[in-house]
Amino acid sequence: MCSMFYNNRSFNRNYSDSGNCLNIIHNKDVEVISNIYGISEKEMRDKYILYLDFEYFYPSYCDSISAELTLTLNDGSKYTLPAYKVRRPFPNKNWNILSMRNKRKISDRAIPLVFDSFDELNRISHISCVWKFSAQGLVEFASIISYETAFLPSTKESDKIYCIVSYDIPVFYRLRETDGNNADDEKATLMCNYDTVACITDAGEVQTSSADVSDILRICTRLLQLSETSEAIAELTQNNICDHDFCEAKIDVQPFPESRLMRIMYD
Prior knowledge:
22% of the residues lie in helices and 40% in strands. It is an alpha+beta fold. The two termini are 29 Å apart.
């Protein structure tokens, strides 16, 4: 049984472990992460691991893509993760993913973070990812993905792996009309489980699925709060440099025993 988040929904799936394959995959993951962090595999097995798997589908032309991934702790301090790269490894080049970088080595998928204890992991209260898409040197579009996190302790000593999987798309896919019979419907469902979804224009106008003024004020207030801990969000909200999305959810992150859904093998 595996519990993790797929766009803010906890899901469970049963897997048959033929030939102990899952244990082999898990052992390989431990070996890879041990190498990148420079600690022994024995030490790694006592650590807590958080996988951040952030991907974004952007259908329009752009010649430059960047992302800022920021962790905010309970005491308000922040840490912007520097060691990652935006990649387009799939045949469909509209999908962009964040991969961990270690010198010349780049993960196929996901950013694994290692913690000495659950208390250290549980200090994280918020995770934000700001994607920026530029053409000819100008930012054309940006997307703010925001998670308020609560990490649930494991009931088993061996379950020390946590994961947040975030597959995202521009909000207009969610706001457009769909008839249930085309590919856009599948993309739209990726957005439907956020607590807050909004489009903000470069003129500062806010569009949500509701016309309630209180919702718009709440979104503006929340963005100003987030700008205090994120330089990228501050730039977007204060300077109105381009159209941008805002998607936020509160999530309870549960542990799962094997990293069977993560492909982190290194090139």
